[in-house]
Write a structure and sequence with these properties.
By secondary structure, the protein is mainly beta. The protein has helices spanning about 5-20, 25-35, 80-85, 380-385; strands at about 50, 60-65, 100-105, 105-110, 115-120, 125-130, 145-150, 155-160, 165-170, 175-180, 185-190, 195-200, 205-210, 215-220, 235-240, 245-250, 255-260, 265, 280-285, 290-295, 300-305, 310-315, 325-335, 350-360, 365-375. The radius of gyration is 20 Å and the shape is globular.
C-alpha cells in the first residue's frame, strides 16, 4: 500500500536480470509447463497482440485492455457535458491509487484508496460512477482497501482508515459496518457461505465473522515466522475444496490453511529467483486450482499449481498498455468473457479473465485473457498441466 521504494526497485532489478538473462537456460520450466515467459516487450502499437509466453511459443495469456478512467468505458457524453468539461476525463473520474478489484455482472469494481471509495465500470451500460458512502448515514469510506461481492450483490469493503468492514447493498447503498475500536485492521476479505474471512494486518491474524451480524466466530494465527504463523497478512482467497490461501506478506510467502486454521502448506520464500517473493500481495484462483500471486516489488504475476510448483510468470513495469506497476490485487473471472473477446486476437479463444490492479503508473486495472491460440500445438503443455478452465 506504500509508494514504490528504492528497495523494491532494487529487488526487481536483481530479479529481472537473473530471470530474463537466464530464461533460455530455464527452458525446461517454460517449455514443459507451456505457460512460462518473461517478456521484454518491444516498442509496439497499442493494438498489437501481446502474448505470454511470446510467439513462437504457444501462448496462454494475452493482454486485452485496461481501465484507468471513466472515458475507458463511457464512449459518448452529452454535448453539453463535453462543452462544459471538454473531452478530457475530469480528475474526479480518474482512478488515483487502486488496491482491490472484482468483477460481477458486467461491472468492474475498483477500490481506490485515495478517492476514497470504489469505482464502478459498467461495461454493459457503458457507464461509470464512484461510491464513497454517505457521511450522514455513517458510511463514508476513509481508506478502503479490498472488496468481496456476494452472490446477491452485497459488497463487503475493508477500510483500514476506519478499521472496519463496510457493507453496501447491490444498489451501492451503505448498510452497516463491522468492527470496534482496535478490534482488527482488515485488509483482505473473502466470502464462504454465511462467513467472512478477514486478514488482520495489525494483529497478524485471520478472523472469521458471521456475515449477517459481523460477530467474530473464531480467530487463528499469531505473529511469527514459523509454519502457521503470520506477519502482516494482506490478501486471501478461498478454494473450492474448503481451504484458504493467505498472502503472508511480511514473511515473503503464501500459506495454505484449512478453514478452521490448521496449517497445510507454504509456497515461496524471500529471494529474487523463480518462485520466490519480495512483496506478495494479491491472490486469485482459477477453477483448476492454479494460484495467481501478484508481487508489488517484482511487478509481475507468478502462477503456481496446487502443489506450489511454479508454472509461469507474466507482466513487467513500464508505461506501455500491457505493463503493470506496483500490482496489488489480482482477480480471476469466468462469467464475463464474452464482453472481452472483441479485444483478443481473432485466433485467441479466451477461457477466463485475469484482472490486475496497479497502484502506480498510467494503467490502473489491466485485463488479460487466459486461453489458446488457434493453430498452435498445446499437446506437450497439456500432458504436464491440467486444462485451465472448463
Amino acid at each position: 500500500m506504500a509508494e514504490k521504494t528504492q528497495q523494491e526497485k532494487s529487488f526487481f532489478s536483481v530479479f529481472s536480470v537473473k530471470v530474463c538473462a537466464g530464461i533460455y537456460g530455464l527452458a525446461f520450466i517454460l517449455a514443459v509447463s507451456g505457460l512460462g515467459g518473461c517478456v521484454t516487450a518491444p516498442e509496439q502499437v497499442e493494438k498489437e497482440s501481446v502474448f505470454y509466453p511470446s510467439l513462437p511459443n504457444p501462448p496462454r495469456i494475452q493482454f486485452l485492455t485496461r481501465f484507468s478512467e471513466a472515458n475507458d468505458v463511457v464512449t459518448t457524453r452529452g454535448r453539453f457535458t463535453e462543452f462544459v468539461l471538454g473531452k478530457n476525463t475530469p480528475e474526479s473520474e480518474v482512478i488515483k491509487k487502486p488496491y482491490g478489484v472484482a468483477m460481477s455482472d458486467g461491472r468492474i469494481y475498483v477500490v481506490d484508496t485515495r478517492e476514497p471509495g470504489y469505482d464502478v465500470f459498467d461495461l454493459k451500460q457503458q457507464r461509470f460512477h464512484i461510491v464513497s458512502g454517505a457521511e450522514a448515514a455513517g458510511g463514508r469510506m476513509h481508506k478502503p482497501i479490498n472488496i468481496a461481492i456476494d452472490r446477491d450483490g452485497t459488497r463487503y469493503i475493508t477500510d483500514t482508515g476506519r478499521n472496519q468492514i463496510l457493507v453496501f447493498d447491490s444498489d451501492d447503498r451503505y448498510v452497516r459496518a463491522y468492527g470496534t475500536e482496535d478490534q482488527f485492521k482488515p485488509v483482505g476479505v473473502a466470502i464462504e457461505g454465511e462467513r467472512l474471512f478477514v486478514t488482520d494486518i495489525q494483529h497478524h491474524q485471520i478472523h472469521v465473522l458471521d456475515k449477517r451480524s459481523g460477530k467474530i466466530l473464531y480467530t487463528f494465527g499469531k505473529a511469527g515466522s514459523k509454519e502457521g504463523e503470520l506477519y502482516h497478512p494482506t490478501n486471501l482467497v478461498l478454494t473450492a475444496d474448503g481451504h484458504l490461501y493467505v498472502a503472508d506478506t511480511g514473511n515473503f510467502r503464501i500459506q495454505k490453511f484449512t478453514q478452521d486454521g490448521r496449517f497445510v502448506r507454504s509456497i515461496g520464500s524471500i529471494g529474487s529467483g523463480l518462485g520466490q517473493f519480495a512483496r506478495p500481495k494479491g491472490l486469485a484462483l482459477d477453477r483448476e486450482g492454479h494460484i495467481y500471486v501478484s508481487d508489488a516489488a517484482f511487478e509481475n504475476i507468478q502462477v503456481f499449481d496446487a502443489d506450489g510448483k511454479l508454472l509461469m510468470f507474466f507482466g513487467e513495469p513500464g508505461d506501455r498498455p500491457e505493463h503493470i506497476n506496483l500490482p496489488a490485487a489480482v482477480a480471476v473471472d469466468y462469467d464475463n468473457v464474452a464482453l472481452f473477446q472483441k479485444f483478443a486476437d481473432p485466433r485467441f479463444k479466451i477461457e477466463y479473465l485475469i484482472l490486475v490492479a496497479s497502484q502506480f503508473g498510467v494503467n490502473k486495472v489491466s485485463v488479460f485473457g487466459f486461453g489458446k491460440l488457434e493453430g498452435m500445438d498445446y499437446s506437450v503443455t497439456e500432458r504436464s498441466l491440467p486444462p485451465a478452465g472448463k
